[in-house]
Amino acid sequence: MSITLITGASRGVGEALAWKLAGEGHTVAALARSEEALQSLAEKAEAEHLSGAIIPCAVDLRDPDAISQCVGTLENRGPIGTLVNNAAVVENIPFAEQSVAQIEAIVDSNLKGTLYCTHAVIQHMIPRRAGKIINVSSVAGIRGISGQVSYCASKHGMVGFADALTQELIPHNIQVATICPGAIDTPLWDPERNPYPGDIKKTIQPSEIVDLISYILAQPDHSIFKRIVVFPSNEWH
User: Fold this and answer.
1) What is the DSSP string of 90-125?
2) Where are the domains of the chain?
3) Which residues have C-beta within 8 Å of that of residue 71, sequence separation ≥ 6?
4) What does the pLDDT read at residue 192?
5) Which tens digits make up the pLDDT trace of 192-209?
6) Which residues in the chain land under pLDDT 50?
């Protein structure tokens, strides 16, 4: 059985997606930096006798060598059929007040990490002429948001990357889809470091994005979802 590789899988949408797919019998490689959180998720899946399995992959997306090694190890277990680039780092702070380290953390994780992961995975997908890649970008990838300059830059880059990559991979029968959601009720909205400027209860629930990803994965190979924009009604753009 093929493997679904999900980045940012230790919490939020990534964790919820890993759990849903494993519950449906899929083998899921859950990738994030927190080894403890991933191990806990994998053990919970085993304890609850899910029909699938969760493989914990503690990797820093800013390390291309570690990503390449992880992908190679997974490919020895089975082909990676789906990649979900979901990991994200954001800080709601004026650009002039951000440190270079903060800028690098956001761009390296959100954009470079997506490029590194995708580059490693398609080395195996292209010879097989099969695969699906889903990028979870953001509405910040199609518009500007004050206080999120670096985040917007990383997400705009992700959208442009996906648009160009789609054209390169169509001849290889590999589908690329991009989702641009508004605010999602996840730990990304830290009340102290990154508070949501509104009622967090009115934001999108992780399960909604999970259902959307599941729908895309179920579609035939000839269908391509270039860009899906979804946001809560209190965030009309």
Assistant:
1) -----GGG--HHHHHHHHIIIIIHHHHHHHHHHHHH
2) 3-235
3) 5, 80, 117, 120, 121, 123, 124
4) 67
5) 666 666 676 778 899 999
6) none
The three-state secondary structure class of 21 is helix
Task: Report how far apart, in Å, the C-alpha atoms of 132 and of each of 34, 51, 80, 119, 128 are.
Answer: 25, 22, 9, 13, 12
Domain boundaries 3-235, corresponding CATH code: 3.40.50.720
pLDDT of residue 186: 74
Calpha distance 58→35 (Å, rounded): 5
Cβ atoms of 63 and 120 within 8 Å: the answer is: no
pLDDT of residue 183: 86
- 215 labelled catalytic: no
How far apart, in Å, do the first and last CA atoms of the chain sit?
41
Residue among 116, 151, 196, 215 flagged as catalytic: 151
At 185, list the tokens. Answer: 């009720």
**97 exposed, middle or buried (CB, 10 Å; 0-12, 13-18, 19+)?**
exposed
Q: What is the Cα–Cα distance from 110 to 115, expressed in whole angstroms?
A: 9
* Residue 190 pLDDT: 66
Angle CA 186–190–196, to nearest 5 = 80
User: Are the CB atoms for 52 and 25 separated by under 8 Å?
Assistant: yes
Angstrom distance (rounded) from CA 36 to CA 177: 30
